[in-house]
Design a protein that fits this description.
This protein is α+β, with helices and mostly antiparallel strands. It is built from four helices and 19 strands. The protein has helices spanning about 1-70, 100-110, 150-155, 400-410; strands spanning about 85, 95, 155-170, 175-180, 195-200, 205-210, 220-230, 240-245, 255-260, 275-280, 290-300, 305-315, 325-335, 340-345, 355-365, 370-380, 390-395, 420-425, 440. It has a five-stranded antiparallel β-sheet, covered by helices on one side. A four-stranded antiparallel β-sheet has the order 7-4-3-10, with no helix packed on it. The chain is elongated, with a radius of gyration of 49 Å. The chain starts with a helix and ends in a 6-residue tail after the last strand.
């Protein structure tokens, strides 16, 4: 047992000696790294100090050279003490002396001082401004404007409108032929307009006509004929008004101007056709504004499906005491002037700008499309009394104005929704019609 114990003790001594050697080597390497970092840091500091000191010395020498070359009366410059730089025991540069505070203040004062001995002040050079005289009146500022006729004549022209008038004494009809317009102003970004014309026989504004929309032109040719039924005795009290608009599908239509014809019997024989060419005068928008409605039409010929999507309305007329309305939209399908089906949207409470996004679908075969008309009516809902209509719009192949253009564009672009903005009217030609049952059905909406 004794020999084994000695071997074990010798091995432990060897292991202990190896650990001590490794520890000593690590400590030596660590000490060497620390010394190297200290030397590098001292070298950098020494180099930075030398650079700073020599910069100060050079600046001082340059300043002394510049001061000696100038012929200045500043005495304090020569009084500035010199800077003496010397190395201390550690080899670092030290400034042996600094200029006193009082000397530096005097030097700054002399450098910033001005020689005002050559400046001459003279009160004679100051001229007194004359004050404007009071009490003088300018009569031109108090001249009143001219009368309405002269102001109307001074309005800028927005092109010309050519039309003709004739009267049929046998049928008591006033025949209005809208020929063309020239020189209309551009209302679109493309430099053109999409003009159309509304025709009124004032003071009646309910019975009106509307031309077709002509796309991207400033000189449209209409060549459309309209007939107003009016007695001969009423002609002197009637006025014919043409309102020219620029059509915009997604916003309010812009009024370009108006043409008003006064006494229709004065200075002309209406038994024969009389041609006129009058300037279009810019005027304010029509005051009879019931609001606008936007809806789209889409027809699928293969499925025989007509979809009317009520999108939204805006600026509706307030029908309640609170200054708002509870509007809903009623869509009626007409065939040859007879109502066959009708549907309505949901009611939007207390708003003049309702948003619906509700689709109403009719099943219609292609052969019946030429005899159909859609009547869209905006109604104010009343829980207690009767619901009051706000305005209506008529769309169909024989509808006036935009209704025909919308219908034709829908047929030309099948399977594609076509959306238009419409201004609501007081009444439509198909608003008072009897109901009739037919072979039509609707798959969406709720009937009334």
């Amino acid at each position: 047992m004794a020999p084994r114990f000695k071997v074990s003790t010798a091995k432990n001594q060897e292991m202990l000696l190896l650990v001590l050697l490794i520890t000593s080597a690590c400590a030596g390497v660590l000490l060497l790294c620390v010394l190297t970092m200290c030397l590098v840091r001292l070298f950098k500091q020494h180099k930075s100090v030398d650079r700073t000191v020599w910069t100060l010395v050079n600046n001082h020498i340059d300043q002394d050279d510049e001061d000696t070359t100038k012929n200045s009366s500043l005495d304090s410059v020569s009084d500035l003490p010199d800077f003496d730089f010397s190395r201390d025991k550690g080899g670092m540069f030290r400034q042996s002396s600094l200029p006193p505070l009082q000397t530096r203040q005097q030097s700054l004062y002399h450098q910033m001082s001005l020689n005002l001995s050559n400046v001459e002040f003279s009160i004679k050079n100051i001229e007194r401004k004359e004050q404007p005289s009071l009490g003088k009146l300018k009569p031109d500022l108090y001249k009143q404007r001219s009368d309405d006729s002269q102001a109307e004549a001074e309005r800028p022209s927005h092109g010309t409108l050519s039309f003709s008038l004739a009267y049929d004494y046998r049928t008591e009809n006033l025949i209005v032929t809208v020929t063309r317009a020239d020189g209309l102003p551009a209302k679109d970004f493309s430099g053109t307009s999409d003009p159309y014309i509304k025709i009124y026989l004032l003071p009646d504004r309910k019975n009106k006509y509307q031309t077709r929309v002509h796309r991207k032109t400033l000189n449209p040719e209409f060549n459309e004929v309209f007939t107003f039924r009016v007695a001969v005795s009423e002609l002197p009290d009637r006025m014919l008004q043409f309102s020219i608009y620029d059509f915009d599908r997604f916003s309010r239509h812009d009024l370009i101007g108006t043409v008003v014809v006064g006494d229709l019997c004065e200075g002309a024989d209406l038994a024969i056709e009389n041609e006129y060419c009058m300037d279009i005068v810019c005027s304010k928008e029509d005051t009879n504004d019931l609001g606008e409605i936007m809806f789209s039409l889409c027809y699928l010929p293969t499925a025989g499906r007509l979809t009317c999507t009520i999108i939204k309305a805006r600026n509706l007329k307030a029908m309640d005491i609170t200054g708002a309305s509870d509007p809903y939209v009623k869509v009626s399908l007409l065939q040859q002037g007879k109502r066959v089906k009708k549907r309505k949207t949901s009611v939007k409470k207390s708003t003049l700008n309702p948003v619906y996004n509700e689709a109403i679908v009719f099943d219609v075969v292609p052969e019946q499309m030429e005899s159909l008309t859609l009547l869209i009516t905006v109604v104010d809902y009343d829980r207690i009394g009767h619901s009051e209509p706000i305005g209506c719009v008529e769309v169909g192949p024989s509808s006036p104005g935009l209704g025909t253009d919308h219908w034709n564009e829908m047929l030309q672009c099948p399977r594609k929704p076509v959306a238009y903005w419409y201004s609501l009217s007081d009444s439509c030609s198909a608003s008072s019609i009897p109901s009739l049952t037919g072979n039509f059905c609707m798959t969406n909406g709720t009937g009334s």
